[in-house]
Amino acid sequence: MCTGAIEWSVNRVVFGMSQARMYELFPVEGEIPRFLEPWSCRTLLDHLAPPMEVLGPLLGEEAAVAHRKWMERWHSGSSVSISRPA
């Protein structure tokens, strides 16, 4: 995540799934990716002056569906596009 770009463009971040939960649902095979960090976006954004409002995780099951669809398409080699629920 590019925290600097987020800081300059919005006052609040809302997210659906934590990184820890994502790796519970979708375990990493082989080498741990370099972006697996022990801190969260909330930790980074709390250090801004003034701190940014961070809400989440919210709608975790719905976020899991979106991540699952992306992972299935990514592993199958097809293009990835996730549509909004009706």
What's this, in brief?
The longest helix is centred in the last third of the chain and has 17 residues, at 60-76.
SSE diagram, text form:
Blueprint: H1 3-9, E1 12-14, H2 19-25, H3 41-45, E2 53-55, H4 60-76
Parallel strand pairs: 1-2
Inertia-based shape: globular
Beta fraction: 5-15%
Oligomer: single chain
User: Which sheet architecture does the biggest sheet show?
Assistant: 2 strands, parallel
* Strand order, largest beta sheet: 1-2
Total number of helices: 4
How many strand segments? 2
SSE pattern: HEHHEH
Count of domain modules: 1
SSE class: mainly alpha
Unreliable runs, pLDDT <50, ≥5 residues?
Answer: none
What is the CA-atom radius of gyration, in angstroms?
A: 15 Å
What is the average per-residue confidence, as pLDDT, rounded to a whole number? 76
Helical amount: 40-55%
Please explain how this structure is put together.
With 86 residues, this protein is mainly α. The protein has one domain. Helices cover 42% and strands 7% of the residues. The chain is built from four helices and two strands. It has helices at residues 3-9, 19-25, 41-45, 60-76, and strands spanning 12-14, 53-55. A two-stranded parallel ribbon has the order 1-2. The radius of gyration is 15 Å and the shape is globular.
Key attributes of the depicted protein:
mainly alpha; two-stranded parallel sheet; 86 residues; 7% strand
